[in-house]
Amino acid sequence: MSIETLPLDTIICGDNCEVMRTLPSESIDLVVTSPPYDDLRTYGGHSWDFYGVAWNIKRLLKPGGVIVWVVNDATKAGSETGTSMRQALHFQSIGLNIHDTMIWQKPKPTPQEQHPRYQPCFEFMFILCKGYPPKTWNGLREKSICGGQAATRKGHRNTDGSFRHKEAKTTIVNDSRLRRNIWEIVNGGDGLHPAPFPEALARDHILSWSNEGDIVLDPFSGSGTTAKMAKHNGRKFIGIEVNREYVEIANKRLQQGVKT
After folding, report:
1. Is 151 in the same domain as 43?
2. Domain span at 169
3. Integer Cα distance of 123 and 72 in angstroms
């Protein structure tokens, strides 16, 4: 298969490794996905091959392409599994950069009072890049609380602890600032999938790491949130999902409007 014959704007029902093996190398601009992790959901009883998925995604990425890998850890026998970190380190071991470790903070997490620990309320969003820098970077901005005010700083410190600049500099704070790498986004969905992506989360990563016309892949397409957000923001998409029921849900959602 050549890039010209890629199955664009399609949700493919099948095993993700088998499907990805048919796609040409260096054909994908961005991957936005959340794989099943630590058996927290059964997803119809299907299994998957992490190492095969990692190898195939790396092969498919264009130079400078980015993977957004949204994962978390189960707690078993009183200990977090650490699966998330091991997966990120494996991506690094096969030649990808851990470009950023971002946090998806959930303002309305499911209450958990039965465990002797504080309320868990986040998931990791590992940003993995094939080379440096990312070929696309559209940094999202937000309103600055101190916009228009004067701020005095000496800047960054040297390795010995001294400031790089002897004299403090006073500047006027911009009205907007680059968004920080902890994103507070409400989780939830329509109840048709056991672990739906928030549309805003998929949308904002797609806007950040791709341009219009780029190709976005989700090898764990689920109910199709990444595909839907790619479509509604002028990107091409390829979704892969082994569960036929979820493929049908995704195709219906692709005909819907967008929640903000």
Report:
1. no
2. 147-178
3. 5
Q: What is the pLDDT of residues 66-77, one digit of tens each?
A: 999 999 998 888
Strands (E), the chain: 10-13, 28-33, 61-71, 75-76, 79-80, 97-105, 122-129, 141-143, 150-153, 169-172, 176-178, 182-184, 215-218, 236-241
Cα-Cα-Cα-Cα dihedral sign, residues 78, 80, 83, 89: negative
Indicate the SS3 state at residue 176. strand
Co-location of 169 and 185 in the same domain: no
13-24 pLDDT per residue, tens: 999 999 999 999
d(CA 146, CA 143): 9
**Domain count within the chain:** 2
Tokens coding 237: 């998409």
Cα 9–chain centre separation: 19
Is residue 32 within 8 A of residue 205, CB to CB? The reply is: yes
The dihedrals phi and psi of 50, each to the nearest 5 degrees, come to -55, -45
DSSP state at residue 135:
S
Judgement on whether residues 32 and 102 belong to the same structural domain of the protein? yes
- DSSP bridge partners of 176: 143
Report the DSSP beta bridge partners of residue 169.
Answer: 153
Q: Examine residue 259 and state whether it is found in any structural domain, yes or no.
A: no
pTM for this predicted structure: 0.88
For residue 103, is it within any domain?
Answer: yes
Q: Which amino acid would we find at residue 160?
A: D
CATH of the domain at 104: 3.40.50.150
Tell me the longest C-alpha to C-alpha distance in the chain: 64
Q: Which of 192, 245, 208, 252 is nearest to 227 (CA)?
A: 252
- Per-residue confidence band for 260, with pLDDT thresholds at 50, 70 and 90: very low
